Predict the structure.
Amino acid sequence: MNNLINNLIIRWEQAFDDIQYLPAFKAQVKTTKYANGARYNLEKFDLHSFPSDGPLTQEKQNHEYGFNDQSLPCYVAFSHDYNKTYWEGYYKYTDNLAEYIEFNINTGTPSAITRIIFENGRKTTTQRLVVNGRGTIYSHLKDSRATLIQKIKEDTHSLFLTATNFEYDTAGKIIRSVSTHVTPGIGQYTSHDEYTYHNNQLDKIRTFDTEGNSRLTFSRNNENLSPEALIEKLARLMAESIVNTLQDNEMELPLALLELGYHYADNYLPLLGIQSQQQVAQKQKNGELVFITDNYLDSIIDITPFEDGFAQIEQMMEEQDDMNIGCTALRKAAAILTETKLFGKIKTTTDFAAYAIDWSIEGHNNEELEEILLECGVKPATITTWKENNFLPE
């Protein structure tokens, strides 16, 4: 597996020369469609089909996809308007290899590579490389290409790398895969996936780490729930599990505030920040913003009752390239907790509120915090009373 990682890095170095092929792949385009986010993940290509991971339109949007005469994507272009950063990429197909190479046009850096190796029509290996920041953090460097490559390789926070091998059963279905990963800030580690099927359709994928810990990373939506219904179901089950977690902990009561802390685009299984009526009163006395807490429970929410829905929501976020879906589910869970006052199972204040927030990117001004609180089930009249009592600053 280390050879696959090393070979991927070598392929990335070679790809600096491949930016010259972009015009040729763009010339292959027969039809063009658009999307509001990334769509064609090469890892889902299997020589027979290539799902789009979300809707496409004829109306111009941020992601432009060009399709060749076989109706396969061959060219992509997208941009970050605020930062004036542009990316272009191409898809290349042969009998034994499919490859996606993406370039940061501003820096000339190959920003992402995905490769699939086939043997006898079966996907046997995938390799994926993504440059941290999609290559934008190197725009200030004016070094030669060789120096730039060396700096990126020596930077332990620069490259996300994954190489995966697949194992099949006698019927030709994938039953197991083994992966090596290199992640900035973590380093190298391994994992493996186990696949299960129902009626000859992939039903679940469970991922295991080296210690044997596991989590569900794919679950088929067997109930055919709409996205809205799936979010509602997950929110209710998550809310119930959160209350069960709170009941298992000794807390100062009545509870006044419950924070569901999450990390946008990374971790949507919330940390529970709790504040009692007495703790909030002390913060008010000290002139502190009461909604920010460092009092988080050590207990982790039991994901078992809702792990299928959680995996399906993660899939939906990936496929639609929309990280706000997870945020919506958490806010709906918070609204249920607020409106039911923790289902009446734990003593709370009359104006108790639960709220889902990532303080690193949101809630930095009063208007934004109010909007979040309203989305999490707090009534406008309660917001008004809080302002009058300096609980929530004007």
User: Anything to note?
Assistant: The chain has a mean pLDDT of 93. The longest strand covers residues 187-198. The CA atoms of residues 162 and 181 lie 4 Å apart.
